[in-house]
Design goal:
Layout lengths: L1 E5 L4 E5 L7 H7 L5 E5 L3 H13 L8 E5 L1 H18 L7 H13 L1 H4 L13 H17 L5 H19 L4 H10 L3
Parallel strand pairs: 3-4
Antiparallel strand pairs: 1-2
């Protein structure tokens, strides 16, 4: 499942595309999008950033620029440093984690600087990850969605409920109005 959040439009959109987390789904979702988006270091997003570089040569959409999440970058360092401190006396070759943190940071460096180009770019994708918590909790509680068809419907319902929450609209009232509205 994928999730997209627009703070400017105060909307959240979940999409389920046959269980795929491939770049094709992301490219399709951003096909008509122009602007910046912030993400973690997931490979599909990085690949899209590579398309941005290709676009500078005229091959792809130059109007979409990926920003990287500073919170994820910080978290990798914090995890590495915490582990290093805990295991320093036991495992002096703990620097492998620090190397991993540095690798993450340097491979994300260009995208981490995106917010400097436009102040509206979020420096973190934590808000969308928080929205995903309800998805993960519900999946854990019911073990699975049941079918591909059901997953698309569930993604739609999560989009409605999260967007209502973002806009301070009581979900029950919104659904009541939606289903029982008279013309």
């Amino acid at each position: 499942m994928w999730a997209f959040k627009s703070l400017a439009k105060r909307l959240t959109y979940f999409i389920y595309e046959q269980g795929s987390r491939s770049r094709k789904v992301l490219t399709k979702m951003l096909e008509h999008f122009k602007g910046f988006f912030t993400s973690d270091g997931y490979t599909a997003y990085k690949a899209y950033n590579l398309l941005k570089k290709e676009s500078e040569e005229g091959n792809e959409n130059p109007d979409v620029i990926r920003g990287a999440c500073w919170v994820h970058s910080r978290r990798v360092f914090v995890d590495a440093l915490e582990s290093y401190v805990k295991t320093l006396s036991k495992m002096p070759d703990c620097s492998i984690l620090l190397k991993k943190a540095l690798h993450y940071f340097f491979t994300e460096w260009e995208a981490l600087q995106t917010f400097l180009k436009d102040s509206s770019v979020e420096i973190s994708n934590n808000l969308i990850e928080q929205a995903f918590r309800q998805v993960k909790l519900n999946l854990k509680n019911c073990q699975n969605i049941g079918s591909e068809k059901s997953a698309v419907k569930v993604a739609f319902m999560f989009s409605i409920t999260e967007s209502c929450t973002m806009n301070g609209i009581p979900i029950k009232e919104y659904l009541k109005n939606l289903f029982f509205r008279r013309k």
